[in-house]
Write a structure and sequence with these properties.
Layout lengths: L6 E6 L10 H14 L3 E7 L2 H4 L11 E5 L2 H14 L2 E5 L5 H11 L3 E6 L2 H9 L8 H6 L2 E4 L4 H8 L6 E3 L18 E6 L4 H17 L5 E4 L13 E4 L4 H9 L1 E6 L3 H6 L5 H8 L3 E4 L16 E2 L3 H10 L2 H18 L2 H15 L26 H10 L1
Parallel strand pairs: 1-2, 1-4, 2-3, 4-5, 5-6, 6-7, 8-9, 8-11, 9-10, 11-12, 12-13
Helix pairs in contact: 1-14, 3-4, 8-12
């Protein structure tokens, strides 16, 4: 059975620049997979100076990318594309996203979806009056709420906020870009992530204090926006920014890779990060903080190592043999290949679109479509695997 070819318009924070955000790599992997399955993709991005000077993917081969400088310009140039699209997806943190979202739901004749790459942050903001990019009223207008967070949060979105359909669409990884390589290990422990005050305490204990305690070790922290006030130990290398093209090399040069979850994500649970999946796809042995739902993505102790203290972190770094470390990384990669690739997410998105064509939540008439979760060629991903990814286990 052939998948219907869709015209998909996505309005997101950024696809052209990965500087200081995880949105770009998420959109790139998902939309590349959608394009590979025959769908026509248009990405609309607000042209802002902090991304304009740091773009690392200007003209992707898998999508048409257009920039706009204001909401009036967006409406003037792209009303036709929005009106005639089969699916319009508005992402979290889109500048003036409430106005953009209201325009989309009033304009398009296709399905209207919201893709929340920051769900716990969004809900916290809405509980305090609303976010710039989403209001409680607008949640009910989107036919489909795609969430980076699964588990109980999906029930909350439907029962408390009135979303017609809330479904988990976790991040994924492009396995053509992220894979193991034979490289000399440059660091004993590495961390990749933009500075966040609510992660800094754990980074301090699990990496910086570990570096001070074990002075012979070599460690690295890559990512922008870290304050000048941070005192970096001499055996910690600072890398201001790594573009996605450098991520694979970075992960493959580490003995262990550190994952730290933002506090709101950890409290909500079921919120894996892009960096977590990237490191696993590269076969890195990951040391992670604990958060609710982690065990639904990786088997703790065998596919991922969990730490809550400096002492536990040092035990992993010092005591695990190279053979044990490699085995942990390989099992993590196997888990990624079984359910968290970009192709898995594209298939999952098609499933959700198939659901939403039958019911829009408020009784409005929609054109019937015959979506299919089957790829045009090749083997289908088992539906059981997709259900597990939606946070239902």
């Amino acid at each position: 059975m052939q998948t219907e070819r869709l015209r998909v318009v996505t309005l997101g924070l950024s696809i052209t620049s990965s500087w200081g955000n995880g949105h770009a790599t998420t959109y790139r992997s998902l939309l590349r997979a959608m394009n590979a399955r025959g769908h026509q993709v248009l990405f609309l991005e607000r042209d802002v100076p902090w991304y304009a000077s740091r773009r690392d993917l200007i003209n992707p081969s898998f999508a048409r990318v257009e920039l706009y400088r204001s909401v009036p310009e967006l409406k003037r140039k792209f009303t036709r594309e929005i009106r005639t699209a089969d699916v319009v997806i508005v992402g979290s943190y889109v500048p003036e996203g409430v106005e953009v979202g209201n325009w989309v739901v009033q304009t398009t004749k296709g399905l209207r979806a919201f893709y929340d790459i920051d769900t716990p942050v969004t809900l916290a903001q809405m509980e305090n009056g609303g976010a710039e990019y989403l209001s409680p009223e607008l949640v009910r207008e989107y036919d489909l709420y795609l969430s980076f967070t699964g588990g109980p949060t999906l029930h909350k979105l439907e029962q408390e906020y009135g979303s017609p359909k809330a479904r988990a669409l976790y991040c994924s990884v492009d396995t053509d870009q992220y894979f193991p390589e034979q490289r000399e290990k440059k660091w004993d422990l590495g961390y990749l992530g933009t500075y966040s005050s609510d992660r800094q305490g754990k980074l301090q204990e699990l990496l910086l204090d570990a570096a001070r305690t074990w002075s012979e070790a070599r460690m690295a922290v890559a990512g922008p926006l870290y304050p000048d006030s941070i005192q970096w130990p001499p055996n910690v290398e600072r890398i201001e920014h790594l573009p996605p093209a450098e991520h694979r090399r970075f992960y493959n040069q580490q003995r262990f890779s550190l994952n730290i979850t933002r506090s709101q994500m950890a409290r909500a649970g079921y919120s894996p990060s892009v960096r977590l999946f990237e490191a696993a796809a590269c076969g890195a042995a990951i040391i992670s903080d604990q958060w609710k739902g982690l065990e639904t993505f990786f088997e703790t102790g065998t596919e991922i190592l969990v730490t809550s203290s400096l002492k536990e972190t040092l035990r992993f770094l010092r005591k695990l043999s190279d053979r044990e470390r490699h085995a942990v990384g390989q099992r993590a990669r196997d888990r990624i290949l079984s359910g968290h690739t970009a192709e898995h997410r594209a298939l999952q998105l098609e499933d959700y679109l198939h659901e939403s064509r039958l019911y829009t939540g408020d009784g409005r008439s929609r054109r019937a479509r015959s979506y299919s979760a089957f790829p045009a060629e090749g083997k289908r991903v088992p539906r059981k695997t997709m259900a597990q990814q939606a946070g239902s286990i």
